Amino acid sequence: MLEAIAKLLVLQDRDRKLRHAEAELANIEPERQTFKTKSLTIQAQLDQVRLRVKQIESDRKQLELEVEAKKQMIERYANQQLQTRKNEEYRALAHEIETCKTAITSIEDGEIELMEHSEQAQKEVARLTKAAESAKKLSDEQTAQLGAREQNLQKELAQLQSNREELAAAVDPGVRARYERLTKSRGENVLVGVQHGVCGGCHMKLPPQTLVAAQSDQDLVTCNSCGRILYFTRDMVLAGDD
Known about the structure:
- By secondary structure, the chain is mainly alpha-helical.
- The protein has 2 domains: 3-165, Helix Hairpins; 172-231, no CATH class.
- Helices cover 77% and strands 5% of the residues.
- Strands 2-1-4-3 form a 4-stranded mixed beta sheet.
- The chain starts with a helix and ends in an 11-residue tail after the last strand.
């Protein structure tokens, strides 16, 4: 194999591993935030339901006060009835008493409805409490695992970067410049093998003269279609060999 190709393959492998490690490292924080967000969302739902329970209890107590106030009014009207001698005034007080009793019935119906709502809300609190605990536990576990993974990736990345420049410096400057340009346009697969007469990058059929040049291993050969650098080894198959 041409020495320049061999060195480029080593550099390409190092760059590929670097990109993969960097990509995986970049995904750590979004993953961490996903677990935290889910936990915080459930906790927020739980807090909201707890507030609703408190509001229902406050509303129920307010209705109790209203009932007590209506009962006191009934007692006052009843006492006034005992003191009056006028039939018209007596009937007016009786009407007020009935109005208060009707209001009490309506308020008590509202209390029953609030009790039903409170029972439903309490069940929701119990459900969300379990869900929040599970989500918090999962978030903590995943955050710890991601933290450990992050540290390992940072170490791996540092090791990969440690002698990358040394590997790049070993490549002829002109060849390296071509490699760098292709990396920007073609991604991580710049050097590709020849298999069954096609380019290993774009999979287009290669002209016979290109195949011969790649097999001769005398100079850098590029694909006529995509411009990637081609190489050929004995375990590969040229067109017509199979």
